[in-house]
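Retry 2 of 3 after timeout on previous attempt. Resubmitting structure tokens to design endpoint.
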């Protein structure tokens, strides 16, 4: 069966491109003598994770406990949950820990105290990382603050916590405008952890970094023991526009059908709305009118069309020039490269995996929920 025969909307995955993306990152980690702990939240599938790790049962990074449970059940036995911890979930973590190694994130003294109290009551210990803000301003302790040093020393001295090291994510790399700016962020991402480690007098603990723009553009991983990129497995329109990859590296697209044709408005309607694409605006800091993805023909050739608006099930596409929609018909199949593959993938309970010729090979079923 060819991908164009699939029901629409469908989430399509080019297996050969995924394999190439994964092999490239594995080789970079090996050459850098750095442990690759890939983030699996982009795809949330067993098949994708196995390609990312190359062989074995980890290590991997997850964003939800549902993902951790899903991968542990499949045999993955070394998992970092890279989200600041809600102590109310410690009982689930205890159950998970009976079958797999689970590492947790701390970025506040109250969280550390709650984990210690729970550990004391249960007679156990937890492996933890201290989350450091290296510039993204989303989560993590300020590496320049005295409180952060105090928290690090508290964790290191705890009888209930096994201090694994310092973890950061250079999310601000997504707002870079040039390749050179991304490379500067990559250098600083690692340097922030090294400086903090030195200030805290903890040279023996590890440094974990990771963002797809920085990891994709550096030739070798700098000053770290571990890297955790994730989006690179699929890439997307945002990464291609930012320069993290080429459009030929993007491994996913959404198959849609033209369901409304309005040539007098130079407009078509497709059956891929917000619940098929997500409403991620893409790299608007580079192009304020980027639209909600890159519109392509069925062979993935970009078209002079722009997905400008979405309601729940409708996507409105405008032509970039006069009569740009003239050769389209009701039922025409289009493929849209999503702005953010992680969010778009999360809209689907199955992915249709195809070969370079468009022949459907298999289905991947992702973890769902939290």
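Retry 2 succeeded. Sequence:
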């Amino acid at each position: 069966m060819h991908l164009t025969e699939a029901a629409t909307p469908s989430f399509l995955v080019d297996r050969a491109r995924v394999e190439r993306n994964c092999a490239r990152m594995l080789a970079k980690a090996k050459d850098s003598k750095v442990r690759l702990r890939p983030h699996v939240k982009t795809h949330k599938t067993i098949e994708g994770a196995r390609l990312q790790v190359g062989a074995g049962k980890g290590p991997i990074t997850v964003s939800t406990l549902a993902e951790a449970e899903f991968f542990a059940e499949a045999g993955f036995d070394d998992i970092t949950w890279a989200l600041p911890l809600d102590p109310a979930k410690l009982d689930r973590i205890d159950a998970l820990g009976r079958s797999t190694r689970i590492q947790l994130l701390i970025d506040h003294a109250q969280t550390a105290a709650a984990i210690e109290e729970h550990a004391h009551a249960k007679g156990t210990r937890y492996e933890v990382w201290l989350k450091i803000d290296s510039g993204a301003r989303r989560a993590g302790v300020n590496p320049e603050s005295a409180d952060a040093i105090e928290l690090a020393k508290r964790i290191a001295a705890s009888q209930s916590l096994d201090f694994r090291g310092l973890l950061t994510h250079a999310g601000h790399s997504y707002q870079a405008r040039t390749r050179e700016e991304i490379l500067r962020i990559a250098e600083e991402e690692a340097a922030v952890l090294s400086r903090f480690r030195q200030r805290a007098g903890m040279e023996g603990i590890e440094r974990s970094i990771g963002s797809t723009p920085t990891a994709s553009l550096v030739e070798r991983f700098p000053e770290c023991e571990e890297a955790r990129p994730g989006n690179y497995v699929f890439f997307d329109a945002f990464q291609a526009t930012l320069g993290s990859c080429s459009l030929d590296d993007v491994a996913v697209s959404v198959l849609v059908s033209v369901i409304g044709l309005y040539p007098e408005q130079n407009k078509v309607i497709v059956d891929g709305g917000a619940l098929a694409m997500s409403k991620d605006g893409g790299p608007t800091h580079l192009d304020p009118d980027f639209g909600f993805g890159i519109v392509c023909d069925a062979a993935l050739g970009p078209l002079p069309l722009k997905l400008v608006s979405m309601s729940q099930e409708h996507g409105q596409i405008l032509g970039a020039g006069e009569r740009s929609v003239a050769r389209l018909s009701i039922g025409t199949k289009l493929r849209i490269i999503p702005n953010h593959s992680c969010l778009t993938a999360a809209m689907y309970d199955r992915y249709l995996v195809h070969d370079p010729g468009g022949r459907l090979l298999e289905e991947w079923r992702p973890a769902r929920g939290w």
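Attempt log closed. Residues 3-10+246-364 form a domain with the Lyase, Ornithine Decarboxylase; Chain A, domain 1 fold (CATH 2.40.37.20).
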